[in-house]
Design brief:
The chain is 34% helix and 20% strand. The protein has 164 residues and is an alpha+beta fold. It has a domain of 84 residues: Beta-lactamase Inhibitory Protein, Chain:B, domain 1 (2-Layer Sandwich).
């Protein structure tokens, strides 16, 4: 019994001192980052009418490209310091006719998407339309069939002569 009191005294004096020191938890848990890092600056560069390749260049390759929703790309980012999820951000990009139509997610809406007029053709090349020829006037004329046939026969015979 006499040896019991010094041990008890030792425990009572040094037990509080163990709480003053930092002991890392065992086992060590690393910080985990998963998904695409998407920043507010990257989202601000998005504009309606961008092509898929322009969006991929701006945001990177999407984490989820669903075959059942081909016009939707999902960008998801998670950080888990010490194994506990601390931050999770999502961004969903929608396309219509292979052009960016709108976005949804945890990021502020860019000013280009909040404009009142739709800007669907911002990146579309300039198009000039040439009127189709009037086919009714050509219907009444007789085509020069004899000249066309003679030309074909002459080229056909020359072709076979050259290849023999």
């Amino acid at each position: 019994m006499h040896a019991f009191f010094p041990r008890l005294l030792f425990l009572l004096l040094f037990l509080p001192l163990t709480h003053c020191t930092y002991l890392p938890s065992l086992p060590y848990k690393i910080d985990i980052q998963q998904g695409n890092v998407v920043t507010d600056e990257m989202v601000a560069k998005l504009k309606p009418g961008m092509t898929r390749s322009q969006v991929r260049f701006t945001l990177g390759t999407p984490l989820v490209m669903d075959i059942f929703h081909a016009d939707r790309w999902d960008y998801i980012y998670r950080t888990a310091p010490g194994g506990r999820v601390a931050e999770e951000k999502k961004l969903t990009v929608f396309f219509q006719d292979d052009r960016l139509s709108h976005i949804q997610g945890d990021f502020p809406q860019p000013s280009a998407f909040s404009e009142s007029e739709p800007a669907q053709n911002i990146f579309a090349p300039e198009q000039t339309f040439i009127p189709a020829p009037d086919t009714d006037s050509n219907m009444n004329e007789e085509p020069d069939k004899k000249g066309t046939i003679d030309f074909l026969k002459e080229n056909q015979t020359n072709f076979y002569k050259d290849n023999q």
